[in-house]
Amino acid sequence: MIVGVHALLYSTNADLDRAFLRDVLGFSNIDAGDGWLIFKLPPAELGVHPADGEEHSELYLLCDDIASTIVDLRAKSVECSEPSDQGWGVLSMITLPSGGKLGVYEPRHPLAIKL
After folding, report:
1. pLDDT digits (tens, 9 = 90+) for 4-26
2. Nearest CA to 24 among 72, 60, 81, 92?
3. At the top level of CATH, which class does the domain 14-43+57-114 belong to?
């Protein structure tokens, strides 16, 4: 019945952020028309957390080694926050060309994508 997940990232400069996803992170993509790129993402998983207040959604990228991922991203001139231990994983926030933030973390929880 369900064949995949289509995630949305809203941006104040979609063209710059699309180029970042394509050229810096290396995500394969298709052009859906007029330069509207849709990116193939790595395997995904979905967690449902209790909401403290208004319901919302979040998007994080997963990595195997946050320290080496940060080194690789900084070598490509990507601004990354210092990693912080969240218990469930070690998190860094990367700054997109638009100024938006995107989380990337090394999980410490079991991964559904390993099933």
Report:
1. 889 999 999 999 999 999 999 99
2. 72
3. alpha beta
